[in-house]
Each structure stands twice: as structure tokens, then as C-alpha cells.
């Protein structure tokens, strides 16, 4: 199956800053592909090059088999984008934000009106169709931005942090809609800081840091192979526990209050610790994407 997006050695610099430093990846048709990474990792910059809003500095990038330098207009016609920052038109109502956007794609007025209604219903916004943008909560704006991204019935939907700032109800609604769209055969590119979101929506994902891809794969496979099956979490650990853990050959991470041991045999590690060390709390849980993320990208703040 041909790739919908193919990047080879893709690079973007801003003056002396390398925002994206030679990344290569391929997104298949019909998959939901995730970009994870700390603030400033280069996710939005990568996404912007894909939707032809930022020129590439070097490397190759093709979308639907067309080079972004050669055919930006043809590519844009088949893409829907929900940007990280809100760029709805504050002068228009909810509904008009969609119909005006439809005009940019040459969609006739009658068809645009039908499409707007369908999308507003799909995103649970029809009741608010006549509201002004400034009257909308952050969550409603995000849902409207997603609706707008679907106006041209895109083959590729790009969602840059679609659920940041949303309440649990709205997040679940967005997830449900993303699943529906994926089932309809759309290819979806998603950036997120929510590990549960990435785990449950993405067929494959990359974790980026400092403009580079650190790993790529299916979320469960990555966690299984890079972290292990389980994590033993020790809260309020005694000062000599790290040394003991090291002597046991355990892989672990620690901050001031907690220590995490990555393992395939959580119960055995738990028993060993419980035998030797008093801890305020010690628990065994399934390893997850957040464990992998922190393992690969560290615990230092970025920006
Ligand atoms: N237009 C620009 N001019 C100069 N530097 C920029 C520009 N856009 C992004 N950068 C820098 O490029 C780097 C990558 O930024 P980018 O927005 O791609 O990160 P991100 O992974 O999307 O982060 P976040 O999770 O915070 O959204 C950052 O260091 C950022 O400051
Ligand atoms: Mg970003």
C-alpha cells in the first residue's frame, strides 16, 4: 500500500535552531499515526510542513505521492487541519465559520450549508450554530475547529493537540469521532500530550525530542519491548533503595519521592522490596506509554 505521507531526512531550521533534524517516517493509508514529544520537540513544525504551511529546509517530504514543494495546492485540497492554536474567525458565527471555509474549497453554497449542518451535528454543535466565537468555551472552539477541518471531506486529517484543555466528556467525544473517521477510511495524524489518548487511538506513533525521532512503532509493542510488562512504583523510598536496585540489575527511574522499576516480573520485584525495605507505598501496575515517554525523554523541563 502506498504511503500517504513519506518523509526522508526532513529538516527545518529557524536561523541557528534545528527544530526538526532529519526525520524519516511513513504514514500508511487508513492508519492513525501519532506524534508525541515534550514541548518544543518539533511536532507542530513537522505537521506544518506536511500541510504545506511551512516550507521545508531540506530533505524530502511527499503527501499523497506529491512533493510538498511541487504541489502544495493539490495536497492542501485533500487535507483537513485542526491547528494547535485557535484560528477560528471571531467575526463569524459557528455555522458561518464552516460555510465560509467551504467557499475556499469551491464548495457551492447549498452543498456547504448541508455539509455545515452535518458536521455541526457530528461534533455536537448544532445547538450552538448561531453563537459567536467569543461566546464559546475552549472546548467548544476545539470541537468547531475539528468540524471545520472536515469541511472538504479530507483523506488526511491532521489534529495538532485536539483535546488539550478539554474536559473528560469532550475528550471522549473527540476520541469517539476520531475512531469513527478512522473507520470511514481516513488517515489521521495526531499530536498529543495525553498518553492514554495516544495509546487508545494510534495504530503507530513516534516519540520525538529535540527535532529527532527516538522510537517508532505500535504503542503496546513499544512499551512491551522498551519498558517491560510491569512497573513497580515505590513511593517514599529509603535512600539506599536505588543502590540495591542497581545491584539487582533492575532498570529504574527515580525522582525525589518516587522510584519506578521497569520489569517483566512485577510480583517478584515487589516481594523483594517488601522483604527488605520499608516504603510508604509500593504498588505493581501495568507499564504504559508514559513510562516509555519519560524513560526516553527524561524528566527535565524543556521550555
Ligand atoms: N516560527 C518559528 N520561529 C522560530 N522558532 C520556532 C518557530 N516555530 C517553532 N519554533 C521553535 O522550534 C522548536 C519546535 O517547536 P514546535 O512548535 O514544533 O514544538 P512542539 O513539539 O509542537 O511543542 P509543543 O508540545 O509545545 O506544542 C521550538 O524550539 C520552537 O521554539
Ligand atoms: Mg506543538
- How many angstroms does the end-to-end distance come to? 39 Å
Mean of all residue-level pLDDT scores: 95
Share of residues in strands: 25-35%
Query: Order of strands across the widest beta sheet?
Result: 6-7-8-3-9-10
What is the count of DSSP helices, taking H or I runs of 4+ residues? Answer: 11
Q: What is the C-alpha radius of gyration, as a whole number of Å?
A: 22 Å
Q: How many domains in all?
A: 3
Given helix and strand content, the structural type is: alpha/beta
Question: How many strands, which pairing sense, and closed or not: the largest β-sheet?
Answer: 6 strands, mixed
The CATH superfamily title of the largest domain: P-loop containing nucleotide triphosphate hydrolases
CATH topology of the largest domain: Rossmann fold
Named at the architecture level, the CATH assignment of the largest domain is 3-Layer(aba) Sandwich
Please provide the ordered H/E string of secondary-structure elements: EEEHEEHEHHHEHEHEEHEHEEHEH
Instruction: Give the helix proportion (percent range).
Output: 25-40%
CATH class of the largest domain: Alpha Beta
Task: Report the bound ligands by name, code or SMILES.
Answer: adenosine-5'-triphosphate, magnesium ion
By DSSP, the count of extended strands is 14
Q: Return residue spans where pLDDT drops below 50 for at least 5 consecutive residues.
A: none
Instruction: Specify the overall morphology.
Output: globular
Amino acid at each position: 500500500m502506498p504511503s500517504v505521507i513519506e518523509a526522508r531526512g526532513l529538516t527545518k531550521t529557524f536561523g541557528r535552531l534545528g527544530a526538526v533534524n532529519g526525520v524519516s517516517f511513513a504514514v500508511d493509508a487508513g492508519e492513525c499515526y501519532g506524534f508525541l514529544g515534550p514541548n518544543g520537540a518539533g511536532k507542530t513544525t513537522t505537521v506544518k510542513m506536511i500541510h504545506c504551511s511551512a516550507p521545508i529546509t531540506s530533505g524530502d517530504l511527499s503527501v499523497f505521492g506529491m512533493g510538498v514543494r511541487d504541489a502544495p495546492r493539490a495536497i492542501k485540497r485533500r487535507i483537513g487541519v485542526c491547528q494547535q492554536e485557535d484560528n477560528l474567525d471571531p467575526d463569524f458565527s459557528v455555522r458561518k465559520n464552516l460555510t465560509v471555509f467551504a467557499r475556499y474549497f469551491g464548495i457551492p453554497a447549498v452543498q456547504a450549508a448541508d455539509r455545515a449542518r452535518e458536521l455541526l451535528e457530528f461534533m455536537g454543535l448544532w445547538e450552538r450554530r448561531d453563537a459567536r466565537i467569543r461566546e464559546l468555551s475552549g472546548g467548544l472552539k476545539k470541537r468547531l475547529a475539528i468540524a471545520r477541518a472536515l469541511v472538504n471531506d479530507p483523506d488526511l486529517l491532521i489534529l495538532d493537540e485536539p483535546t488539550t484543555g478539554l474536559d473528560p466528556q469532550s475528550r471522549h467525544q473527540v476520541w469517539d469521532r476520531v475512531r469513527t473517521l478512522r473507520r470511514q477510511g481516513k488517515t489521521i495524524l495526531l499530536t498529543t500530550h495525553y498518553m492514554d489518548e495516544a495509546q487508545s487511538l494510534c495504530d503507530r506513533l513516534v516519540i520525538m525530542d529535540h527535532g529527532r525521532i527516538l522510537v517508532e512503532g505500535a504503542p503496546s509493542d513499544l512499551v512491551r519491548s522498551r519498558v517491560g510488562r510491569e512497573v513497580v512504583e515505590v513511593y517514599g523510598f529509603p535512600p539506599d533503595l536505588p543502590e540495591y536496585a542497581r545491584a539487582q540489575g533492575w532498570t529504574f527511574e527515580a525522582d525525589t519521592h518516587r522510584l519506578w522499576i521497569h520489569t517483566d516480573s512485577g510480583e517478584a520485584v515487589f516481594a523483594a522490596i517488601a522483604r527488605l525495605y520499608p516504603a510508604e507505598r509500593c504498588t505493581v501496575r501495568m507499564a504504559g506509554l508514559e513510562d516509555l515517554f519519560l524513560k526516553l525523554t527524561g524528566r527535565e523541563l524543556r521550555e
